[in-house]
């Protein structure tokens, strides 16, 4: 059996009455390259934000790197690295702001 880097079953997310993710299933084997493509508004960013523990799902089961999102989000944070489309912030924020951003991403207190 192949180990999964990402395992998602029945992932759901809504913002009020707007359903963004409706029962998404996803299996990404370890050691593979995976791309998430789709039109604007398809839920790609929401899915990545959930997988990286930045926002909570509305339902479903999520495992990343063998860690369960519901019971071990810190394990997921320790196992992954995330960068955005426009990740270069040099010159836009100070060193202190960059440190605070990283602390926020890891849900650390000051």
From TrEMBL:
One of its GO terms (molecular function) is ATP binding. InterPro entries: ABC_transporter-like_ATP-bd (IPR003439), ABC_transporter_ATP-binding (IPR050763), P-loop_NTPase (IPR027417). SUPFAM superfamilies: P-loop containing nucleoside triphosphate hydrolases. It holds the Pfam family ABC_tran. Its main location: membrane. Keywords: Antibiotic resistance, ATP-binding, Nucleotide-binding, Transport. This is ABC-2 type transport system ATP-binding protein. It comes from Paractinoplanes atraurantiacus.
């Amino acid at each position: 059996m192949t180990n999964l880097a990402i395992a998602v079953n029945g992932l759901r997310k809504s913002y009020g009455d707007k359903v963004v993710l409706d029962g998404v299933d996803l299996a990404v084997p370890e050691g593979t390259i995976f791309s998430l493509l789709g039109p604007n508004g398809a839920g790609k960013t929401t899915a990545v934000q959930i997988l990286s523990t930045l926002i909570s799902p509305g339902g479903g089961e999520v495992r990343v790197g063998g860690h369960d999102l519901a019971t071990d989000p810190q394990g997921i944070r320790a196992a992954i690295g995330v960068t955005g489309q426009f990740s270069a912030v040099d010159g836009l924020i100070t060193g202190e702001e960059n440190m605070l951003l990283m602390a926020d991403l890891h849900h650390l207190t000051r």
